Amino acid sequence: MPRMMDLSSHATPGPGGDAVAAAVAQACLDVERSVAATLASDLPPVNTLCRHLEQYHGKMVRPVLVVLSGLATAPTTEKVAGGLVTLAAVCEMVHLATLVHDDVLDEADVRRKTQTVNRLAGNEAAVILGDYVLSAAFALCSTLGDARISEAIGRTGMTLCAGELVQLHHRENLSLDERTYFELVRRKTSSLIAVSASLGCRLAGGPDALQARFGAFAEKLGTAFQIQDDLLDIAGDQGVVGKSLGKDMEKGKLTLPVIHHLATATPAARGRTLTLLGAPEHTPRQGERAELIESLGSTGSIDHARRTAESLVQEAKRDLDPVPESAAKRMLLSMADAVVSRAY
Amino acid sequence: MPRMMDLSSHATPGPGGDAVAAAVAQACLDVERSVAATLASDLPPVNTLCRHLEQYHGKMVRPVLVVLSGLATAPTTEKVAGGLVTLAAVCEMVHLATLVHDDVLDEADVRRKTQTVNRLAGNEAAVILGDYVLSAAFALCSTLGDARISEAIGRTGMTLCAGELVQLHHRENLSLDERTYFELVRRKTSSLIAVSASLGCRLAGGPDALQARFGAFAEKLGTAFQIQDDLLDIAGDQGVVGKSLGKDMEKGKLTLPVIHHLATATPAARGRTLTLLGAPEHTPRQGERAELIESLGSTGSIDHARRTAESLVQEAKRDLDPVPESAAKRMLLSMADAVVSRAY
Fold it and tell me: Any residues with CB less than 8 A from the CB of A26 and at least 6 apart, and which?
């Protein structure tokens, strides 16, 4: 089963590094247990689907951000407080719900190297299961007893969906500009990642200004993460990434490399790319995909996207300047670097 | 536009009747405003869909139950407290979210005499919009500042979805028994109706035991309501009901009249009914639908369902015995009678 983003390869030397890494790893296991316990049902048809979702836990980016932001706010190498685990489980469940529904919308068959719920049990079951998981996230969140956290999670759900709706609206819009792209990504991807970090800080007692710093850090991280996803969707290896690739192109979603390419290519190259991208629901053949990758390379568009992600990561790290030095902070900084170096 | 269940035809004579009826009518308008304000977005593609949902408000059963249960707990003919309006808007939004997703699952084209969201904007937009509305319901709920209410709403969302998943599991199960049917209905329909009443009581300061009475009353009401929906789906007039009919049969969902019929018909009649119902995704032709209605009548199955709904209503009314006499209580009792007399 794929596990949390491999932080061990980004060693965090210095006092307490090993202890924090161990505490985070333990917290991730506790999050998985909390999610499973929250979703568990006495009804076998429900339970079977929820058990299948256990294979959906991937890099655990949101839980790790909750926990590390909490630990960086109130450093401790002891057991991660139960509240942080609960909040981390909430953020992971909101994410799981969006994955289940995204796979319906994308007609995807593979997720984390296993069948998607829609593939396994049909679109109807997948739509209902997503609602079940989203409701469970809110039920669990309310047990924290902090109405502002519950409201923030609910509002983030709205933001995510609004981003998805606007993305749908712009589907096949071949003149989408970078400004709109970044606004879309901020809503549909970065918002939940940002709130994971800012609420982790809040739950650990951090003041509003510090919460905002963690939020700004993670929002940029989330955008860099999405750009890396765009790159992997175009040029990644499905066996390594573990989900259906080429779906963005197939669904007419413009990604950063493509947007840059269309804005900078010669009229002839632009025309050819538009032909490759143009037909709605057109699944590019293998040869066409290779041609597209080559075209994107010729205008430096893949490099442009990569550099944009890298500079976002550098900016993100500066957002944490006011956070006191700690092993948890160092791990957050390592995590930021890992976002753009990952191949899955 | 269809408005709240017509309570005026069930006159509630006695002191304060008119004032409470006026307060409830005003509260329903306030609920519609609260829902619209909560869903409003600065993004035009989102706003267009949310505006379309304004036509989805129907009988306002859940908001009316919240408000009347609150008023019956702490009788007043003055303005309905803002908290009750907020809670009523939350319950209505959870309901709206399920309608939007149900219409995707049922491939329905018409709802409240207008286009469904899936028909208007496609399945993808409808799936995302449902998530948006559900998230908005939770965000709004948390502003009440009562974690137990938020948890109850989240758990009710889970119960609803679990009921839908089990219903899906039993699709085309032609030997579904009444016990399983009632369990399904309790989850997928009655749970939200029950929680509307019990939380309305809670918000007005009612003790746990009284909350349970309101919940029991409304749960039975919800089941009677579903049976009436079953009857309308089989024998209603689409122009009056205002939504696509015959969908239960088409989707292989067994309804109470059909379950009773299959359990009591002669082998020959049963065989013919199974043929009519048998083919998955089979849309009965007009003549077949008439034949099915006649068969159900011949075993007294339509009467059986009608009588079951009526006796549930009588039991429900007795659940309110411990509630002190008031105009709001009388209106709840009238509402119970209206459930089984409605034609839409």
Answer: A79, A80
Q: Yes or no: say if B252 and B172 are a contact pair by the CB < 8 Å rule.
A: yes
Any CB–CB contact under 8 A between B157 and chain A? yes
| Count: domains in chain B | 1
Interface with B, mutate which of A127, A170, A172, A180 (most B CBs under 10 A): A127
Q: Distance, in angstroms, between B77 CA and closest chain A CA? A: 30
Q: Which residues of B touch A166 (CB under 8 A)?
A: 43, 45-46
Residue B78 lies in a domain: yes
The alpha helices in chain B, defined as continuous H runs, are: 17-39, 44-53, 61-73, 82-105, 117-142, 147-169, 178-185, 191-203, 208-235, 238-241, 247-250, 256-264, 267-278, 286-298, 301-319, 327-341
Q: Which of A125, A128, A166 sits opposite B46 (nearest CB)?
A: A166
Query: Could you list the residue range(s) of the whole structural domain that residue A60 is in?
Result: 17-341
Q: What is the distance in angstroms between the Cα of A328 and the nearest Cα belonging to chain B?
A: 31
CB A173 within 8 A of CB A262: no
Per-residue pLDDT, averaged over A248-263, amounts to 83
Please check whether residue B281 touches A, CB under 8 A: no
Contact B71, B328 (CB under 8 A): yes
How far, in Å, CA of B274 to CA of B281, rounded? 14
Six token digits for residue B276: 């009519």
Q: How far is CA A223 from CA A122, A217, B55, B75, B139, in A?
A: 31, 10, 37, 53, 24
Residue B33 lies in a domain: yes
Q: Quick check: A37 pLDDT over 70? A: yes
A158 min Cα distance to partner chain B (Å):
5
The per-residue pLDDT for range B282-320, each reduced to its tens digit, is 555 667 778 888 888 899 999 999 999 999 999 999 999
- Quick: pLDDT tens for B191-242: 999 999 999 999 999 999 999 999 999 999 999 999 998 898 887 765 555 5
- Which residues in chain A are closer than 8 Å to B130, comparing Cβ atoms? 127, 131
**What CATH number has the domain bearing residue B297?**
1.10.600.10
The answer as to whether A6 is a domain residue is no
CA distance B46 to B170: 35
pLDDT at A6 over 70: no
CA angle B73, B77, B78 (to 5 degrees): 110
Domain assignment present for residue A2? The answer is no
What is the helix (H) or strand (E) element at residue B115, kind and residue range? Answer: strand B114-115
Q: Which long-range CB contacts under 8 A does A232-241 form with residues at least 24 apart? A: A232/A343, A232/A344, A234/A258, A234/A292, A234/A293, A234/A296, A234/A302, A235/A293, A235/A302, A236/A343, A236/A344, A237/A343, A238/A110, A240/A343, A240/A344, A241/A343, A241/A344
Contact A224, A189 (CB under 8 A): no
CA distance B200 to chain A (A): 18
The two structure tokens encoding residue A65: 């951000």
Give percent of chain B above pLDDT 90: 63
Residue B40: C-alpha distances to residues B49, B51, B136, B149, B211 (Å): 10, 8, 10, 24, 32
**pTM: predicted TM-score of the whole model, two decimal places:** 0.91
| pLDDT number for residue B10 | 47
Any A CB within 8 A of B43 CB: yes
E-strand spans in A211-330?
Answer: none
ipTM: 0.91
Instruction: Report pLDDT for B344.
Output: 61
Q: Would you state the structure tokens that stand for residue A19, as one six-digit string? A: 């202890």
Name the percent of chain B lying above pLDDT 70.
87
Write the CA distances from B44 to A72, A161, A279, B40, B41, integer angstroms.
Answer: 39, 13, 26, 10, 7
